[in-house]
Amino acid sequence: MARTRSILIYGLGTTLRRVSAFLWTYLFSLGLAYLFCYPMKGALAGMLDNSLAAQRLSSGFDIGTAVDAALRLHEGPGGQATTMASHAAIPVYLLIYFLLVPGTLYCYVTRSRAHLATLLRQGIIYFWRFIRITVLTAIAFALIVGPCIVLQSHWSEFVNERFVGRSALVLRLCGLLVVLLIASLVRLYFDLVEVYTVQLGAERRADGRHDHRVRRTLGPAFRLLRNHLWRAWLVFLLLAVAGSLGSFILSRIAVHMLAQQRVWPMFLVAQAGIMVMMFARFWQRGAEVSLARQNPLPFLREGSRVPFARTAKPTSDDRPEHITMMYSDPLTPVYPAPLSADDSLAGRSFMKKDEVSTLSDPIPDPEPAVPSLDEPDPGVFHHDPHNPRE
């Protein structure tokens, strides 16, 4: 039986040992943000560099001036470039996502080093499998979370008609919380599907090809979630809340630093908030991989590259036949003594049960052997009454 481990602690260890995957993802995200925000920076500079209204943004952040600048930004000549850049950022981000996430999970599952070449190579290998998982995720969200959102909107209308003030706010938040919990459960299930897909990809089929069948992981992922529901779900929610709370606190601190003369402290604090949220997500992935490693796919072969969970010590039924016979006698060594040159069994690779018992003891007896006599010597015990010498 597999040993139960804390997936929260071991997930953190997995994430820290392969922290380069997290750093590469952050650097790519930062580069994409700078690349696609550069047209917006140029448009804002052309609009605010020669305007006295910009002083309200530099001396004390005026929300009205910021909203007005954002509205004028899309009306000017640079608005089309900004809109095109924002639309082009979405497919590029998804491309990077479908390359780095499978590579990260591969390094987590197989305990490989998270080099950039490994991340990109494995991302290309698992690219279309994760596309199929994303399509299944979208269908599941439409069928499960979609009706919940509709019910939550009706619940909000019901609350607004009958309650006011704090009670109405609490009831609306409760309805929204239920929807978020259901969405998180669906997200956790497909995270386990992704982990099992990477675990299955390390196994080869009978024809020597890699197994690309995502459908084989749907059932095992559901059983894993069902058997470890509270354990996995609580860890998932705990890390999600911790990451969101840390990001919210750091973002609030960054907003209060907007009116300062220097920009780089605010930038560092804002980026720290983004890194906290991203690290919480990678920690979730590490916890899910730890859970899947303790409960691997049942149809994987023992020679797979996937590390299996540690099992109990082998019993006598698991040992070879000759070792089982030797274990029955505590004085019999596990490995017999080497055979002599004139032994009739020399040169054989395998021994039978009756041959093992005829082997000599490798430890010599410290006492001399006792002579064995088949019958008494007649010369010693012979007595003749007619002989006067006796």
Structure overview:
The protein is mainly α and 390 residues long. It has a domain at 127-227. 66% of the residues lie in helices and 0% in strands. The chain has helices at residues 7-17, 19-48, 55-59, 63-75, 79-110, 116-125, 127-162, 165-201, 218-227, 229-256, 264-294, 321-327, 353-356, 378-381. The longest helix is centred in the middle third of the chain and has 37 residues, at 165-201. The relative contact order is 0.10. Mean pLDDT is 77; it is low at 308-361.
Observed structural traits:
390 residues; mainly alpha; 14 helices; 66% helix; globular
Number of helices: 14
Low-pLDDT runs: 308-361
Give the proportion of residues in helices.
55-70%
**End-to-end Cα distance:** 81 Å
In N-to-C order, the SSE pattern is HHHHHHHHHHHHHH
Number of strands: 0
Mean pLDDT: 77
Radius of gyration: 37 Å
Class per helix and strand makeup? mainly alpha
What portion of residues belong to β-strands?
A: under 5%
Query: What general outline do the C-alpha atoms trace?
Result: globular
Major sheet size, sense and barrel closure: none
